[in-house]
């Protein structure tokens, strides 16, 4: 079975893919390739796998593009041990592609549809989805198991062993089977190479500013870290009307990129930014501080406290090691200065609302997705892409599938 090919080369808003002919369901196992993590702190292994057909409520998707997020690197290092599946595991949670086959009961998707995966599923039925907080959907409880929602696997190694999935998705694969609750259908004319970014980094960063931080016109905003999330937090703060948007990152070439995304000030460290508070914020401190580094730690949050002014909000978007359980802060000043420390999952966004809305902003030239993609790779070059990320050479590396 093979889906019609989708081209993403030289993709532009609205026009970027060829029409895709629907593929008839086959109900048979598919052989495909995926990047598998078999041991901690070891390279990704690109291998042939066997993929079962989708069951009820599931869809088979041919991937077109997938982003390489720092959260996948946390799988390699073991920073999220205990909250992520046991190995072996197929990585990737930021993807887009074309539906090949749908399981029983899936009525709103059909072969040929273009989809973006939300790394947090949205069942639409649990308490949090009903409250409009789908970023906290109860289906995310299955992340640690890494299997389908019924507890079984669709992805298998050639030796027959079950393979777990990052965020129930496993987008480091040419094909994958996912639950329909993880899919967002998009316009077939939208370029799928850009669309993959909306599955994690764009919504997470933009939402961290617009929703979690609740940036208002005239606010002073600092974003710590300029990767795939931080760049979009800068864009979100700018679009929300911030008076000052400071980007803080030690990598020098990212300072110029931060200006492209809307930053008004750039710094190499929080210490440097604190030393310039009088110039940047009239010595008031920042109203909102968004933490978006690759791996957070308690000391960074301590610094962010002094970067933030009275009545401020410090938003923790980035992940910390599960072993990092200590933050040293002058807690009395939280009361006296009315500072707030809040966490956010997926930027407190909603995939069904925010993925299409942000893509529309892109097609109107208001949201910059093009400059987020620093380099593209093939699946076989996945380890090169992560090495570039570790060395600060990428804002976002994207794997393009043939």
Can you tell me about this structure?
This protein has 402 residues and is of the alpha/beta class. The protein folds into 2 domains: 30-199 and 369-400, Alpha-Beta Complex (Quinone Oxidoreductase, Chain A, domain 1); 205-345, Rossmann fold (3-Layer(aba) Sandwich). Helix content is 24%, strand content 24%. The chain has 12 helices and 18 strands. The protein has helices at 70-77, 127-130, 192-195, 201-212, 228-239, 253-261, 270-275, 277-281, 298-307, 331-336, 351-363, 382-390; strands spanning 30-37, 45-51, 58-68, 89-90, 95-102, 114-117, 155-157, 164-165, 175-179, 183-186, 220-224, 244-248, 265-267, 286-291, 308-316, 340-343, 373-377, 396-400. Strand 12, helix 6 and strand 13 form a beta-alpha-beta unit. The radius of gyration is 21 Å and the shape is globular. The model is unreliable at 1-25 (pLDDT under 50).
């Amino acid at each position: 079975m093979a889906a019609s090919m989708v081209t993403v080369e030289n993709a532009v808003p609205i026009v970027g893919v060829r029409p895709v002919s629907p593929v008839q369901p086959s109900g048979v196992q598919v052989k495909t390739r995926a990047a598998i993590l078999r041991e901690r702190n070891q390279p990704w292994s690109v291998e042939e796998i066997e993929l079962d057909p989708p069951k009820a409520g599931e869809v088979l998707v041919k991937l077109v593009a997938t982003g390489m997020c720092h959260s996948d690197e946390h799988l390699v290092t073991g920073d999220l041990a205990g909250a992520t599946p046991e190995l072996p595991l197929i990585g990737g949670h930021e993807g887009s592609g074309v539906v090949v086959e749908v399981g029983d009961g899936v009525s709103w998707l059909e072969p040929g549809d273009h989809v973006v995966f939300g790394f947090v599923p949205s069942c639409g039925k649990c308490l949090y989805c009903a409250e409009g907080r789908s970023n906290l959907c109860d289906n995310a409880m299955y992340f640690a198991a890494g299997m389908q929602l019924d507890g079984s696997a669709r992805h298998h190694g050639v030796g027959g062993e079950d393979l777990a999935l990052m965020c129930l998705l496993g987008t480091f694969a040419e094909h994958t089977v996912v639950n329909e609750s993880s899919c967002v259908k998009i316009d077939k004319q939208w370029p799928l190479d850009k669309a993959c970014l909306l599955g994690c980094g764009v919504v997470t960063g933009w939402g961290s500013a617009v929703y979690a931080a609740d940036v208002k016109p005239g606010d002073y905003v600092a974003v710590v870290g300029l990767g795939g999330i931080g760049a979009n937090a800068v864009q979100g703060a700018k679009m929300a009307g911030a008076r000052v948007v400071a980007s803080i990152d030690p990598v020098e070439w990212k300072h110029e990129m931060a200006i492209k995304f809307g930053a008004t000030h750039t710094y190499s460290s929080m210490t440097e930014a604190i030393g310039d508070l009088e110039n940047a914020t009239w010595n008031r401190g920042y109203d909102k501080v968004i933490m978006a580094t690759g791996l957070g730690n308690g000391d960074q949050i301590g610094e962010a406290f002094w970067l933030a002014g009275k009545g401020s909000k410090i938003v923790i978007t980035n992940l910390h090691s599960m072993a990092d359980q200590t933050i040293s802060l002058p807690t009395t000043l939280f009361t006296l200065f009315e500072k707030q420390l809040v966490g956010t999952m997926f930027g407190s966004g909603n995939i069904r609302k925010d993925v299409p809305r942000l893509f529309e902003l892109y097609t109107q030239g208001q949201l910059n997705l093009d400059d987020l993609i620093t380099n593209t790779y093939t699946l076989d070059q996945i380890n090169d892409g992560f090495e570039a990320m570790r060395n600060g050479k990428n804002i976002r590396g994207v794997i393009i599938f043939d």
